[in-house]
Amino acid sequence: MWTMLLLGSAVNAWSPPWGSGASCTGTGDPPEVPACYEGKASIPISPVAEQVKLSVLEYSGGKGILTIHATGLSPEDCGNTTFTKTGQEIQFDASCLSGAKVDAKYCSDTDTINVEVQPSKFPLKVPATLTKVAC
């Protein structure tokens, strides 16, 4: 029992060796909307993967509406979800993601979105860079 408790503590404190995703520079706004971004979140040497598409439908004055479509380990859909953007940080109600936690940043210098997703009941954050695609 003590071994399990200690191992559980080590897993919670452990940082993945692949880091926390790509660097993110620029605090500007998306150049145009609608805008769609897509990418794959995966853990190296593991079958754990998630394809994510985030669509920014509306944006003005630091506020907007987005949708999220994810396939893979934990398929999810979030329709017309309001969000705010402060600097790089994108904040939205992630309750539509079955308990997953999401950190998202808009990187205006590269027009990409960096996300770190921690699926429900999974001890690690999985990073991904979402690149602009046709909507």
Description of the molecule:
- The protein is built from 1 helix and 8 strands; from the N terminus they run H-E-E-E-E-E-E-E-E.
- It has one helix at 2-13; strands spanning 35-42, 49-60, 63-72, 76-86, 89-92, 101-107, 112-118, 126-133.
- The chain has an 8-stranded antiparallel barrel.
- Strand 5 and strand 6 form a beta hairpin.
- It is globular.
Brief sketch in words of this structure:
Keywords: Signal. The chain has one helix at about 1-15, and strands at about 35-40, 50-60, 65-70, 75-85, 90, 100-105, 110-120, 125-135. The protein is mainly beta and about 140 residues long.
User: Which series of helices and strands comes N to C?
Assistant: HEEEEEEEE
Helical content class: under 10%
- The mean pLDDT is 83
- Stretches with pLDDT under 50, minimum 5 residues: 1-19
Strands in their spatial order, largest beta sheet: 1-2-3-4-5-6-7-8
- The radius of gyration over CA amounts to 16 Å
Biggest sheet overview: 8 strands, antiparallel, barrel
Overall spatial form: globular
The beta-strand count equals: 8
Q: Report the portion of residues in β strands.
A: over 45%
Distance between the termini: 51 Å
Number of helices: 1
Oligomer: single chain
The secondary structure category is mainly beta
Keywords: Signal
Signal peptide: 1-21
